[in-house]
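Protein 1 of 2
SEQ + STRUCT:
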Amino acid sequence: MPAIILVALAISIPLSAQTITTFDAPDAGTGPLQGTYATNIAPSGPIIGFSRDANDVRHGFVRSQDGSFIIYDVPGAGTAAGQGTRAYGINPSGTIT
């Protein structure tokens, strides 16, 4: 019975209300396991995550609602392949973990 209710609710949502936005962080690599990884979105709209560049180094980012990026590296996070900065969480006040 719960599955039927979920299907009915899903059918009632207009498809035109769905929007998918794709983006790539600046300087994100294009090789295997490289690229942009969005990990969370704040209630106010900014998206956080990390990118892996062509050297396999990770860099944290914040993508604002207007599409602009802030790329950052935590001091001491490392700059060799497999090292760098990753962001996974953001709270309502904008603190990133």
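Protein 2 of 2
SEQ + STRUCT:
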Amino acid sequence: MSSVEAEDLTKRFGSLTAVDRLTFSVGEGEIFGLLGPNGAGKTTTLRMLGSLIAPTEGSARVGGHDVVKDALRVRETVGILTENPSLYDRLTAQENMNFFAEAYGLADPGERSTRIRELLEFFDLWDRRGDKAGTFSKGMKQKLAIARALVHGPEVLFLDEPTSGLDPRSSKDIRDLMEELSRRERRTILLSTHRLEDAERLCDRVMIIREGASVIIGSPEELQRKIAGTPVLEIRLRGAPGRVADAVRALWGVIEVAVDAPSSRLMVSLEDPEASTPEVVRAVVGAEGEILSVGVVEPSLEEAYLRLVGGEEG
């Protein structure tokens, strides 16, 4: 079952097409990444899906509700973290949570109090509940902002660059929390990011966007292999690899053999690495090559991404 569906979703601002005919769906409990450089249209896409702005053309449904005709129901269905956390610095963490809980319609004080405590404990903020948000670090503010987005129990969570500008420790904390939300609470998460580490670690599938248009959709592993190529067998040898390389090139299933003479390495591209590796090793040994190590080097999502966006900075 799809939690989010978009068909030919388009947004124009005057003569500028910010989002150009995006079509995709996101399954229940899936973490789906919108990956692309700044200005690619990721934030505009999330704003349309959250019924914050209307599309120029096309349609979208979130939790079964049309983003234009059922905008209020969509806003009740989703929790949104914008790039700016939009917290009230002069209010405490608990006061911020209480304010937004009331705004989302949690009228019962007992229910509201229980929900706020549950979330602040989940995000390790309960002990700081009485501190003003303005005294929090950026990582703590991000945690509080995500907790605020979850206070009304939304089915779908939209996160816009949640680790942008955070130190490595805070970034890891936020990624861990996203994984737990997906796994433990089965939240559907739409993650907008230009950080490849986040997409590669967290996302079940990724849509790479460039200049508002979808370039490709697939799991990180699928994109790595489709775009960056097949895995490469790396063989480190003792001594010159030239004679050994000729023996390997003669094997069936070998696409290419690259020789790195200074480091005595062979980089062997194979049609089927799993099936062909034993034959390659036997050929190396038969050619009197002394093997120091054998390993498979997987193509990275970074390679695939840079090939598609032309090396643009994120």
